Task: structure prediction
Amino acid sequence: MIPVLFGVLLLVFSITNIIPGDPVLLMLDVKYTEKEYKEMQEYLGLDKPLYVQFYNHVKGVLQGNLGKSIRTREPVTKKILERFPATFVLAVAAMVIVAVVSIPIGVIAALKQNSKIDYLCMVGAEIGISMPIFWLGIMVILLFSLYLGWLPAGGRGEPPDLIHLIMPAFCLATPYMAMTARLTRSCMLEVLRENYIVAARSRGFPEWQIVLRHALRNAMIPVVTNLGLQLSRLLGGALVIEVVFRWPGMGALAYDAIMERDYPVVMGVVLIVAVIFIIVNLLVDLSYTFFDPRIRYDTRKG
Amino acid sequence: MIELYRRFRKHRMALVGVIVLAVLVFVGIFAPFLAPKDPYQMEFGSSLAPLSLAHPMGTDHLGRDLFSRVIYGTRVSLLVGLGSVLIAALVGGLAGLFAGYFGRFVDIIIMRILDVVWAFPPALLALALVAVWGPSLTTVIFSIGVVSVPQYARIVRASVLSVKEKEYILAAKASGIGPTSIIFTHVLPNVLAPLIVVATLGIATSIMIEAILSFLGLGMQPPASSWGLMISEGQKYLRTYPYYSLFPGLMIMITVFAFNAFGDGLRDAWDPKLKT
Result:
């Protein structure tokens, strides 16, 4: 995990350094003297050799310092922290929708395999995966905000409320709902073929008990761990959903920063999202031991 | 092969996918003959015109025929999809082959590097890369290719690991054949099936990322006729002229659907157990 984190830092640092345009010039007025240029270069730490800059960058990141915005000169960390809660709420809401909607759909589809319901669910899932979420967002705004006038078209509300959350969360959830429903279905089908299910059936347990107690519990292991991984992928999708719905989160922050060529902010967001992914990945790996006691990362006996 | 075809034919959704793909490729190749108008020809008199026989999908804010632009958009999407997947499958496939076959530190180094790329959401990293290289068709293809590499490396590595200890490989080794020729004549053919499946599904993902990049303004640049770009331009006229965004989005959906269905069909035909 540490080498990967280091690699992530190195990659983001390189991207920031290769981006065309001199950050020193962006910080200065149009008319500047040679002395002012030197001072600004020194202030930004850009007069030092690259490896020293990288060392300082890593040191800064470890202390929670992601540099300063070129436009507003505010610390990037502060800007990201301001926006993080909005993105977090959106991602968690989408995750809840995914879990609540797609797991039952997947289970039902598996129990009624090859029926019309199954076919309908799977075609629906296929369509859900195929829709670009930003386009879906625009279309639901068109339908529910502009034509029907039921839901607000964007923003988060003052103060933040649930009604503003509905459309962005559903749009963000759509492709993941589809994937999770498919995964639940295939895991469920696999488990239902197992011997212990056949054994439970032959002992005459009621069907609901077999499904809930024996099948679902085992089918859920890959589904739940996959949900964890999706949470971090959701953050990538949130970027474009936040732009469509003018949701004031990290994605919208990154987008505005891209438009203003404020690259320290962009790279700060990219870095944070990657670090979150690595941490969530680690947690998911650890959670396997919780769901399946046969897996152990401990090499000692015990 | 016949067995493969028979199993594939039973997959109804995949059949639909193949037919749609054939049509899309045809449209992409023969776009200049199929498009009724020049997609870059502006007619300010007829901007945002109502749907008619002359303009089946209407016109955009500069009076360009949207139907023709949607047809030309097929080219962009297919080019980006195929191009980036070729790059990713080639680089990722080779990386996976070597990592899986040689193991040990070769494996560790290759997979660690790819884990770094894997840690970023693909669209976000592609966005950063396009920002570095400047937006154009080539840089979009390259960026999406780069961010997709780990996926291919992982799947190929996993299949290499599963065939590496088979008798025929050991026999080849025992008869003194060098590692490079073992990899390409004995290992590669056996990992090709999963690679092709992932590549087919990967085209869908690449097309989606291109649409996202173009929608955010860091992909194809105006006046290119890219579907993502058209949706973004149409967003400004949503209230009065919804067709502008509607049709390009539908086209993305149909294309991605077709590639996904085709890929699923291939996967189920080759190996019903192979699930992603």
Remarks:
- The two ends of chain B are 23 Å apart (CA to CA).
- Chain B has a mean pLDDT of 85.
- The longest helix of chain B spans residues 66-102.
- Chain B has eleven helices and no strands.
